[in-house]
DNA sequence: ATCCCGAGGG
DNA sequence: CCCTCTGGAT
């Protein structure tokens, strides 16, 4: 697929998805510390759930230094409603302690350093870098991104590293952060693994999978 | 009942 | 690769 078509896909998805009543929204990051902690907490939950806990958490633990002195057991009830609270309480306290002990209380700004923090994987590091620091570090390929990219025709590969390389080559750097989430949203809402909703799809006319489907009949 | 904008661990 | 960890929204 050429860049023009890819960018047309990007434009259509960008215009549509913020408006469609998605139940998830990007967290408004106040500072890198809060951004990091909130993003760790966001794994496998809604941002609404994380936002619901925001004030209680950060009024009690406003800085990495304060959170580092806490015990996971006392943090756990505060974040209970988001789920996975047992592991996540340990993650954020452990992360705060490493920030203080090894990074001078600051959030590191490289993928390598971020990923050494407990609870921070590729996806979380990507989000923190792109949203909190404006550093574009590529596209995190999950199952949604993989499926959608293959169907539309952004890539021919099933290898996540090659898929990322193809996507990165196809979109301008400023778009990486957004295209990442647009593909995930689109994959969940419309381009589902089973019974994709072609009637609702904004980019069906540009989609390789959809065109092949119709050509066969 | 079903799904989940992940990470860690086996 | 597989599994587990959890509550909440729908």
Mean pLDDT: 90
Helix content: 55-70%
Name of the CATH homologous superfamily of the largest domain = Hypothetical protein, domain 2
> CATH class of the largest domain, please?
Mainly Alpha
Strand tally, please?
0
| Overall 3D shape | elongated
What count of helical segments does DSSP give? 12
Work out the count of structural domains.
Answer: 2
Report the portion of residues in β strands: under 5%
Spans where pLDDT lies below 50 across 5 or more residues: 19-24
CATH topology-level fold name of the largest domain:
Endonuclease III, domain 1
Which structural class do you get from the secondary structure elements?
mainly alpha
Plain-language structure description:
With 217 residues, the chain is mainly alpha-helical. It has two domains: 3-21 and 139-215, Helix-hairpin-Helix base-excision DNA repair enzymes (C-terminal) (Endonuclease Iii, domain 2, Orthogonal Bundle); 32-132, Endonuclease III, domain 1. Helices cover 58% and strands 0% of the residues. It contains twelve helices and no strands. Helix 2 (32-42) crosses helix 3. The longest helix has 18 residues, at 85-102. 35% of the residues are buried. The protein binds a DNA duplex (10 and 10 nucleotides) through residues 23-24, 26, 40, 42-49, 80-88, 91, 118-124, 127, 140, 142, 144, 180-181, 184-185, 188. This is Endonuclease III. Pfam families: EndIII_4Fe-2S, HHH, HhH-GPD. Its EC number is 4.2.99.18. It comes from Methanoculleus caldifontis. Belongs to the Nth/MutY family.
Kindly list the characteristics that best describe this protein.
DNA repair; HhH_motif; lyase; hydrolase; Endonuclease III, domain 1; mainly alpha; glycosidase; elongated; Endonuclease Iii, domain 2; 2 domains; DNA-binding
